[in-house]
Amino acid sequence: MFKKILIANRGEIACRVIKTARKMGIKTVAVYSDADRNALHVEMADEAVHIGPPPANQSYIVIEKIMEAIRATGAEAVHPGYGFLSENAKFAEALAAEGVAFIGPPAKAIEAMGDKITSKKIAQEAGVSTVPGYMGIIEDAEEAVRISREIGYPVMLKASAGGGGKGMRIAWNDEEAREGFQSSKNEAASSFGDDRIFIEKFVTQPRHIEIQVLCDGHGNGIYLGERECSIQRRNQKVVEEAPSPFLDEATRRAMGEQAVALAKAVGYASAGTVEFIVDGDRNFYFLEMNTRLQVEHPVTELITGVDLVEQMIRVANGETLALAQEDVALTGWAIENRLYAEDPYRNFLPSIGRLTRYRPPEEIAAGPLAENDRWHGGAPRGEAAVRNDTGVYEGGEISMYYDPMIAKLCTWAPTRDAAIEQMRVALDSFEVEGIGHNLPFLSAVMDHPKFIAGEMTTAFIAEEFPEGFEGVELPGAELRRIAAAAAAMHRVVEIRRARVSGRMDNHERKVGRDWVVTLQGQDYATVVDADRAGATVRFADGTAHRVASDWTPGCQLGVFDVDGEELVLKVGPISSGFRIRSRGADLDVHVRTPRAAELAALMPEKVEPDTSKMLLCPMPGLIVNVDVEVGDEVQEGQRLCTVEAMKMENVLRAERKAVVSAINVAAGDSLAVDEIIMEFE
After folding, report:
1. Given 87, 187, 275, 288, which residue is catalytic?
2. Running DSSP on this structure, what letter comes out for residue 493?
3. Structure-derived torsion over alpha carbons of residues 615, 618, 623, 624, reported in degrees to the nearest 10
4. What is the pLDDT of residues 110-131, one digit of tens each?
5. Is residue 470 flagged as an active site residue?
6. What is the pTM (predicted TM-score) of this model?
7. 589-622: per-residue pLDDT in tens?
8. Contacts of 473 (CB under 8 A, 6+ apart)
């Protein structure tokens, strides 16, 4: 077995590989850019090597810099993670020339399957059903338009070397095909060093389901079930689960056997994923093969008990697979939510900054992975499990140079409903402050009827949140539970205030029983009667809730027992109450005396400043170009400028007809959120 491996990656996947290497007794080497000098993966590894400036094309995807790090440390093998050089055949060849093992498939398999154009041709030759498209290289935007017309709109423009949603655009007409072609080329060149683009038919109402394969260098191959990855935004997965709630056993077996056959056809050896589009009749079409470890691999590990990173290392060491297909059993259900540094209230635009608070829920081991001692070890099956794969820590910074993913929160349970409920609690328990993040949105998805019913497609977010995410309106029953908890919390706060030292003699503050709780536009008159075990909160209609908790003032996470059911709240102080976040809702909850509540109702609401004649920067980012000049008359939908953030180009367009009166930025400027880009008459 290898004594030392280098991880040619960063963030959570580097940390993930280090965990398995430690378990196997293998020393690890991290590489890092200037931006990652204090990153978690650098701290976790046994050694670390600096490889250059923050941009990936000057550090993480420069093959020679990785090779220098290998030579300097004597690493015997390299795990590439995902992204960066993970699907780069030249990198695998460079390692082979140095006598260093690549913990991934052979270079020929990467070249054949990692390139999406080549892989589709091979799939067609192997008799695999594929989506109609143009597999050749497209030279310019006009050729892209011509091909798109021949295929028929809508079409998908995709980077041949792409992945992770980078270099992908949907075009519904000629103009979008032109713009999408150039943006896809730019993103592909920036992210992968390869700007080749191909076009295929965009299948409407599809489900994105992928098969995990595992092959060795001795001709053996198996599949480890499927993953449902249909909930996506901007072609980037947000929620994954295993197994799929849509597939039946016959379709699962057919997809799995086809995936393994395709892998064997190119001499594949390692973990890999074959992605399919599946229609409403369970017809499936080959989409692409990712010749690497997938971001969402934990859900497969949780239901099979197989540590995929360990298997990759063993295959790279020349070992034969210890598992046959009949040994693979899918047990229970696993769900993964990707926590992104993005603002869901601003159309999910990237957010950067320092994590002033980062407290994931406690990890719990259970299920097949724990039984097989592959992750935490030894917990009995039948309990719910929580796993959090991350590469950040409290006080660390989220950089503008890399992918915005902060963590992958996973839950496992014997049933899908139980796994969803465990995820709801885990999301409510996850504390993140200092940056914008998508925790509220993830909570909303977990409570969405279509998701609960398993009836989602890749259009789920676009269809269910067409105007973007504007927060959650909680149902009345949940509001009453929160109101009861808030009233009980307020009483605890008032008792502490009443006991403050330094009071004047003969002056004692009495804590009242009558309080009005205001939240989500509703007032609840309550009477709080407390005892040593908790409090009974009675409402004006005669109903009551029993609340018990050990919450104390200043604690930012409260776990309450309300009528025998758990309620997890994130709690922050505001004037006359609390800021409470639960199940995707962000609530200002005020608790006042009846007289104070009466007076508060007379207060005027604060009016937001008028920014209708300004274009504000919606995210921290870099101005790529400005497409208009002062004095130009712009039309609704016209392109105004492009802002790049976290490797994604974002085109800002005019919301209405106007005349540009001032431009305050130029190409190359770095802007903070809400900085004024231009003004209109």
Report:
1. 288
2. H
3. -100
4. 999 877 777 888 888 877 778 8
5. no
6. 0.83
7. 999 999 999 999 998 888 888 888 999 998 888 9
8. 520, 585
